[in-house]
Amino acid sequence: MELDASYLAFKHVSQDTKIYILNHLHVRISIYPKDACIVAEVLIEWGLLLKFIRSPYPTISS
């Protein structure tokens, strides 16, 4: 299922990276975001998120 693959990829990203990606995608996040909620929102923009995910443990380079 697509959600499973998306969740597994996204749950390994650091909190700072999650916030960076979500801010880039203009996704509103709560003060205390939960992985499941973040993934549900990000799936809408999954095509854009894919370019940030290079490996099971992606990092953002400047």
List the helices and strands and how they pair.
Blueprint: H1 2-11, H2 15-24, H3 35-42, H4 46-49
Helix pairs in contact: 1-3
Query: Which range best describes the helical content: under 10%, 10-25%, 25-40%, 40-55%, 55-70% or over 70%?
Result: 40-55%
Q: What would you call the structural class? A: mainly alpha
What best-fitting shape do the alpha-carbon axes yield? globular
Average pLDDT: 59
Compute the number of helices. Answer: 4
Number of strands: 0
Question: Could you describe the largest sheet, including whether it forms a barrel?
Answer: none
Distance between the termini: 32 Å
Q: Work out the oligomeric state of the chains in this entry.
A: single chain
Number of domains: 1
N to C succession of SSEs: HHHH
Low-pLDDT residue intervals, each spanning 5 or more residues? none
Main features:
single chain; mainly alpha; 62 residues; globular; 4 helices; 0% strand
What does this structure look like?
This protein starts with a helix and ends in a 13-residue tail after the last helix. The protein has one domain. 52% of the residues lie in helices and 0% in strands.
Summarize the structure.
With 62 residues, this protein is mostly helical.
